Amino acid sequence: MAMIHEITALVGKHKARKRIGRGPGSGTGKTAGRGHKGQGSRSGGGHGAGTTYEGGQTPYFKRVPKRGFSNAQFRKEFSIVNLKSLQERFDDGAEVNADMLVKAGLIRDTKLPVKVLGDGTISKKLDITANKFSEAARQKIEAAGGKVTVIK
What we know:
The chain is an alpha/beta fold.
């Protein structure tokens, strides 16, 4: 049975969407909030060519010179894990892989490849499996008696 304090906590949590063009009684019938005539009232009108339209003056992206190279489309993203996090979350002798990192809450999911970085110190002997390791991380893990396994 629902209590009154539980019901009132949910009131107003989800606002109903505005149903436009549904008759005069709705308050947004007829012109459906677009007003009368003009570009804004037409389908496809209103914002010109989207958010870049500047009322007919030369748009910003056309005024600015295009130079150089961006690596953005070729960049590879990784889920990052530091040694200090592994030191805090795992016991001595544990096997660490992407699934264990998700369970420990260090990475969100296993969609991205995992890279281990060398921030912090590690004294536990861990068997770590990841896609990449920084050189500092590799040295610290092996110095602590742990094992590094690189997967593709």
